[in-house]
């Protein structure tokens, strides 16, 4: 089972160049996401886990933390050091941290 990280721990990892995977749908992602986050909708995670590194942490984020827990658990079962971000993108935005808008993304 994957661990959950606080917004503060995630912000530090993000600032240090941590890999962020957003498991929301494309329209949600386009409406606002953590800068640099890679889009990998939850429904695609089982087929796409092999695209993720196993030698560094992966921070998984969604809107509020529910989908990211599910995705991080799936990733962890495949040997990925995955962490679900507590509070998701909603908490990130509400804390005043940067949000990118639009559909340009880093494909995961």
Task: Please describe the structure with a list of short key phrases separated by commas or semicolons.
globular, 6 strands, alpha/beta, 5 helices, single chain, Oxidized Rhodanese, domain 1
Molecular structure report:
By secondary structure, the protein is α/β, with parallel strands linked by helices. The protein has a single domain (3-98), classed as 3-Layer(aba) Sandwich (Oxidized Rhodanese, domain 1), CATH 3.40.250.10. Helix content is 35%, strand content 18%. The protein contains 5 helices and 6 strands; from the N terminus they run βαβαβαβαβαβ. It has helices at residues 7-15, 26-31, 45-48, 66-77, 88-94, and strands at 3-5, 19-22, 38-39, 58-61, 82-85, 106-107. A 6-stranded parallel β-sheet has the order 1-5-4-2-3-6. Helix 4 (66-77) links the parallel strand 4 and strand 5 (82-85). The radius of gyration is 12 Å and the shape is globular. The mean pLDDT is 94.
Helices and strands in order:
Layout: E1 3-5, H1 7-15, E2 19-22, H2 26-31, E3 38-39, H3 45-48, E4 58-61, H4 66-77, E5 82-85, H5 88-94, E6 106-107
Parallel strand pairs: 1-5, 2-3, 2-4, 3-6, 4-5
Mean pLDDT: 94
Radius of gyration: 12 Å
Given the C-alpha coordinates, what overall shape results? globular
Q: What's the main sheet like? A: 6 strands, parallel
Q: Report how far the terminal alpha carbons are from each other.
A: 22 Å
Task: Tell me the count of domains.
Answer: 1
**Spans where pLDDT lies below 50 across 5 or more residues:** none
What is the helix fraction of residues, given as a range? 25-40%
Q: At the fourth CATH level, what is the homologous superfamily?
A: Rhodanese-like domain
């Amino acid at each position: 089972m994957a661990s959950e990280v606080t917004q503060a721990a995630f912000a530090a990892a993000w600032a240090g160049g941590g890999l962020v995977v957003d498991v929301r749908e494309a329209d949600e992602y386009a409406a606002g996401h953590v800068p640099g986050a890679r889009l990998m909708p939850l429904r695609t995670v089982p087929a796409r886990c092999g695209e993720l590194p196993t030698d560094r942490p992966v921070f998984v984020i969604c809107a509020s933390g529910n989908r990211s827990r599910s995705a991080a658990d799936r990733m962890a079962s495949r040997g990925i050091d995955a962490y679900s971000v507590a509070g998701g993108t909603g908490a990130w935005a509400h804390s005043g941290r940067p949000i990118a808008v639009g559909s340009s993304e880093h494909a995961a």
